[in-house]
Design brief:
Blueprint (H helix, E strand, L loop, with lengths): L1 H25 L31 H24 L3 H4 L10
């Protein structure tokens, strides 16, 4: 009985400590004295999503993707036929390299 009460007390203490730690970790920071950073305006030349100047036909893009898929499938088939670590880490012949 004493051992059961000891385990129960230790469990309650551990639960209380975990609750205090969780509360401290999730509490929002109180930094009223610190100035809030002002968002800076983005430079006009440094835009990421810019409309391209030249339009590429969708057919050309589809042909490039199909060629890439064909090359990757051929590389996978050759690896399955003769698996080596050199083939696994070799460069791809596709121009669409990530």
């Amino acid at each position: 009985m004493e051992m059961f009460l000891m385990v129960l007390c230790m469990s309650v203490l551990a639960l209380a400590l975990a609750a205090v730690a969780f509360g401290a970790a999730t509490r929002p920071e109180r930094t009223a004295a610190a100035p809030q950073p002002q968002p800076q305006a983005a430079k006009a030349a440094a835009r990421f999503f810019v409309e391209p100047q030249t339009r590429v036909p969708i057919e050309a893009l589809l042909l490039q993707i199909e060629n890439h898929v064909r090359l990757e499938q051929a590389a996978a088939e050759s690896f399955v036929a003769y698996p080596t670590s050199a083939m696994l880490h070799s460069k791809t012949a596709s121009p669409l390299v990530n």
